[in-house]
């Protein structure tokens, strides 16, 4: 197939690598891609991937068989809409269905309508409104920006003043949700969705805070591992039945069929599993470990979802070998980051058996060397016969990489190794 992957990050690098690893040969293009994707031998044309018109014209000119939309921004911008209207198979929801991620208030309404288990939430427009809700729900306080915030719109704190300040920061940009605090282990579970049916991938757990021990501010994700040996044997089946399928069927009933990747952000509490959030695309960095274990052809499921034929597909197969990813970030992340610094050791890291490196924010300098161009720079992915082996390989590979001032967590997958 001739496949266009849209997006510039490590998630898209992981998708591209999975497509390239299939037995069938695909002509894969990633726009705009990044330097690491280009180094994988894939064309990375410059394209405004959030502009529906520009993307539609590019696809018309090049004649792609399938378009895979990676990040949330083009989905919420409606990039899928003109493509689907033109008859192009698209893996990614239309603009209306993408509101499942674009608006947390919309997601809560869909969950309520579909009887999906989730925590209490209240929509507020100012700190004055928020105060009473914070007092009703009690500490710890959970405050979320309603719209997209690149993983930085969520605050969990026991400091009431900090919670009110977070409301004040985000309220000018739209409504804010105050939610009930849910205590437990978090799980990311992805589903392929074709507007009516769903098929599950393997669960993963990611690490959102910047520092070890889940300390410090939220980030886009500092690491992840898969599978999850501590979830019940029927966990995936339960979430399919109680969360994913009801959500997709509710959206279908409302005339906004969800086609693409339904990301269920879950928490396992003493009272049962609850949904924290939905995303409308593959999560980063969980995608990197889930796809590292995928044995079925990824393209088969992307196309089946895009063409409404998931019911005819078997459930995807996964390796029993665990996978771990450790994210290497620039100095200052997730605040003001220092960029432009050289990176060495990537080749040495990838020479370790079972290790590969995905690029999130890198470029080539004039001499062909690597430099960091953003906050999360690299993801070091390792697969091993056990969690201990995969984790040891990942950190051995990280130790080969040098980036002045870089930071990474040292406790990824420690609880299962």
Automatic annotation (TrEMBL):
Domain of life of the source: Bacteria
SMART domains, sorted: GARS_A (SM01209), GARS_C (SM01210)
Pathways involved: Purine metabolism; IMP biosynthesis via de novo pathway; N(1)-(5-phospho-D-ribosyl)glycinamide from 5-phospho-alpha-D-ribose 1-diphosphate: step 2/2
Catalyses which reaction(s): 5-phospho-beta-D-ribosylamine + glycine + ATP = N(1)-(5-phospho-beta-D-ribosyl)glycinamide + ADP + phosphate + H(+)
A GO MF label: ATP binding
Domain ATP-grasp, chain residue ranges per copy: 108-307
A single GO BP: 'de novo' IMP biosynthetic process
Protein name: Phosphoribosylamine--glycine ligase
Species this protein is from: Leucobacter luti
Gene name per UniProt: purD
